[in-house]
Amino acid sequence: MTTQFIDIAQRAAADGQITADELLALRREGWGDGIITREEAEALFALNTALDVRSSEWCDFFVEAIGEFVLNAAPPRLQCSAEEAEWLIAQIDRDGIVESAAELEAVVRIIERAENVPERLKDYALAVVEREVLTGTGPTRCGGALSATHISAAECRIIRRVIFASGGCAPAAVSRFEAEMLFRLKDATLADENAAEWDDLFIDGVANFLKGFVLPSAQLDHARRRELEAFVADNRANVGRFMGRVMREVPQVANHFGKVFGKKKPAATDYAALAAEGEKVTAYESEWLDAMIAADGEVDALETRLIARIAEEG
Questions:
Q1: Which of 3, 72, 192, 265 has a 20 to 30 A CA-CA distance from 275?
Q2: What mean pLDDT, rounded, does the chain reach?
Q3: From CA 89, how far away is CA 107, in angstroms rounded?
Q4: Residue ranges of the domains in the chain?
C-alpha cells in the first residue's frame, strides 16, 4: 500500500494541512498490511514538516507510526539498531532543528517502548532538551518562542522518561553521561525559577547513578538479539525431531534423563546481595561526585539535599 499512502501524505503536505478523512485514510493504508515502510515513514516526516497546524490526532498517529517502523519493521522486534537510530536522527535534523514536539515525542516513546536502543539515541534526545533549556526555545516551549532560561515541567517529564526508560544502557538505570547532564542543567539554572518537578528529578537521577543496581545481562544488544532469534528459528524443528525420535526409540528415556544427566541445579544468583553491593558508593563514584560539586566552587541547596539523601540511604 506504499504508493497510495505516499500519495495521500504528499497531497496533504501540498495543502499544508491534513483533514480528518486524510488522516483516517493514512491509518487504513498504513495499518492495512500491519507494516510501516521506510518510504512511508519518510513521507510522514515530510508531511509533519509541511503542516501549519499539528492536531493532537495527527501527533498521536505520527508518533505511533514512526515508532512502529523503527521498532518493528525489521526483526528483532522492539529493538532499535544503530542504523535505525541514525536514520531517525537524520530525519529530525534534516532542516537543522527539531521541527515539532511530535518529533521529540516519537524519539522518547521509542526509547520507552524498546527493549534496547543505542546510547546515541538517548544522548540525542537529552541533548535536544538541554539545548532548549539553555537557549529558551524549542518544541517544548510554547509555540517555540524564546523564553527565559529555566527548566519547564514538560522538560522535566521528558528527561525523567528518557533517563529511566527501558532502552539504553540498562532498564531504569541512569548513566554517568546523564548524571553529568543533570549537573550542567542545575548549574545553568540555579538562579532561575524551574518547575517544581526539577529538584526531585535532579536528586533522583544523580542518586540512581551513584547507587543504582544494574545486572550485566540486563539487556542484549541488537546484533546479539538477532543472532539468538536466528538460532531459535533455524533449530527449533530439528531439536523437536531429535527429541521425538529419542522418545520413540527408547520409551523409558524420559524416566532416566535425570539419572543420565543428573539433577544438579546451578547455584542461584543472589540478587539481594548484588543489589546491596550496587547500593554502595564506590571510591570512583565518590571522587566523581566531589568533582561535580566542586566544579562551580560552591555547594548549593540541591547538592546539599543530594548529599543528605545519599548519607541517609547509607
A1: 265
A2: 81
A3: 9
A4: 119-264+271-314
